[in-house]
Amino acid sequence: MWSCSFFGDRKKGEYIPVEIDLSTELGKFEGMGANVPISFYSRRLKALQTFNELGVKYIRVKRVSDNWDDILALRGSTQRLHIKWIYSLDAIPANFTNEYGQLVDIEGFAGWWAEEVDELLYQEVPADYIELLDVPDIAPGDSLPMSSDTYNALVHATKEELTLRGFDQVGIVGPGLSTPGISGDMETWYMDLDEQVFETLDFWTVQMWENRIDDENLSVAFNQLTEYLDTIESRKPIFVSEYASTETNFGKIQYPDPGAYDQQGNLSTFKTYYYSASFTMPYALRVYSNTLDLLKQAAVIPFIYQMYDAPADVKFKKQSWGLLDLNGEAKPVFTLLANLMKRIPDNASVVKASYDPQHNFNALAFDNGEKLVLTVCNQDESAKSIQINISSARRSLELTGAVASHSPELFSVELGQRDVVETVDMELKLRHDEANNSQFFTISVEPQSTMVAEFQYK
Predict the structure, then answer these.
(1) Any idea which architecture 29-341 has in CATH?
(2) How far is the C-alpha of 39 from the C-alpha of 64, rounded, in Å?
């Protein structure tokens, strides 16, 4: 069991102060989303347990040919948890495009979507939302699939087709852009939408990948987007439809890229061949920190990319982005996220944690008036002595449990072996500051580790 040394009597400056003011709520925690590949629905995956531990409230799926058995199997796992489905598409069917891959038959594509929804509902598959095209701002060939003006017309046409068939309950989300950037042509995707389309879209959808963002800073990029949307009076809830981490270099160690791991040339056995940064603790910590950064935004639901590795991805695309491997076993990133998400109480609000960002750690809290959960993520290779001060509590707090997660050994790339995550109980000493009417405790957060603490109100 890890213990937390008490530094309250030490000189100021020997700990890093973190302030959690429970009156500064950032918004409601609406749960997590997850991208689920349905080209292969793994019978090894304990879907109910997995979705529940990650707090998944929405899944985003894509249709491929002849996969109804997999879709129906997945449907059975999501119904019991009342998980909503977002149905997206990778490419416009060729009969609606010209030789350059551009959408030319708007009415035909809108009718295709309505027929697809009809088939989904006939199969009793949820069609809560549809996203008309994933990343229409990325050219699959010589040109973009559609312009922002074409997208505006497509939303009109699709909404009309859905209404004609009596599917008004099916929402449309979009535009599904590849980046939150709003410079140059990107802002036209918001500016060119007319008032009716703006009212039709239930959520904005956008992806958050570090390699598509200036300075690779998710928080800064997202703040720029939301400030811009506020300026043009176009703010609405946002689905971050894909995120994880594109970083593969940690502590001067270059790990294989989860998006193309065979290019690294690791390779003598199948074990090392099927290996990438997604099997490592440093990558897990980066994704965990990115998750906290996204949850700090108001009315945002982040969608993990992706829930589990699929054989087709591993064999043909050389991709291994999953939180679970081909056998349904947890990678470090799943373990860390589940340690937090399964503890967040129902109807919780996200509460800001204030600290000096130069110390290279991340912190956030969740509070529902009956229970408080807070977490710290330390990506550094050195320990952090942190004093957490909790103010504006409605009643006194009592610790109910705390855990720390770290990896006792980070395996070398040559081994091609998954890092082991060890989660241990911690002892915390919660003290009361009479002068400031607050409570505080001090912890030493180990290198490359996370901490999650739970409190209840007395």
Answers:
(1) Alpha-Beta Barrel (3.20)
(2) 6
